[in-house]
Amino acid sequence: MNRLAGIITHFHSVDTMSTVNVNTEIGEFCCVILENPQTATYLKKENKVKLLFKETNFFISKNQIYNFNSFRTIIKDILLADIFVKLAVESNNYFFCVLITKKEFETFDLNLNDEIFVYIKPTNIILEI
Predict the structure, then answer these.
(1) pLDDT of residue 31
(2) CB-side neighbour CA atoms (13 Å) of 94
(3) How far apart are CA 99 and CA 54, in angstroms?
(4) DSSP tally for the chain: helices H, then strands E
(5) pLDDT at 73
(6) CA 40 to each of CA 15, 17, 68: distance values in angstroms, whole numbers, following the listed order
(7) Residues pairing with 17 in the sheet
(8) 42-73 pLDDT, tens per residue?
(9) Which of 4, 12, 56, 59 stands 20 to 30 A from 117 (CA)?
(10) Under CATH, to which class is 2-128 assigned?
(11) Residue 44 to residues 14, 39, 129: CA-CA distances in angstroms?
(12) 48-53 and 126-128 beta bridge pairing
């Protein structure tokens, strides 16, 4: 599981769901949670939280697609297997593990020290306090 610290900058709640904007050292993230301020006391502006996301929750690209939930990384290590490829990537001194299919790896023709952008869907981010 990948972790990234940040601060809540904005949230919007409807019934039992909320969208939460979190500012981090590598960019702005938005996530959707099944909570609201009445059920989650941490849901306040300026509160510190951690974003959690699985290794399989990344979309990769050679170019930036979105201005949120996306950040530039450098490939630091590659572990090639028959079906999946595990990438160790770095962004602003933060290290993440990205698991992609071998087909994606070959299609993008990835190599060590290549620059790639990663994107995480808002519904794939978990908040931790």
Answers:
(1) 98
(2) 17
(3) 9
(4) 1, 10
(5) 98
(6) 13, 11, 24
(7) 14
(8) 999 999 999 999 999 999 999 999 989 999 99
(9) 12
(10) mainly beta
(11) 15, 12, 12
(12) antiparallel
- Nearest CA to 28 out of 69, 72, 58 is that of 69
SS3 19: strand
Asked if residue 9 lies in contact with residue 45, where contact means CB atoms within 8 angstroms, the answer is: yes
Please give the model's pTM, rounded to 2 decimal places. Answer: 0.92
Residues forming a β-bridge with 85 = 80, 100
Backbone phi, psi, residue 124, to 5°:
-100, 5
Long-range pairs of 27-32 with CB within 8 A, sequence gap ≥ 24: 27/68, 27/69, 27/70, 27/71, 28/67, 28/68, 28/69, 29/4, 29/68, 29/69, 29/120, 29/122, 29/125, 30/68, 30/69, 30/122, 31/122, 31/123, 31/125, 31/126, 31/127, 32/122, 32/123
Q: What is the DSSP letter of 68?
A: S
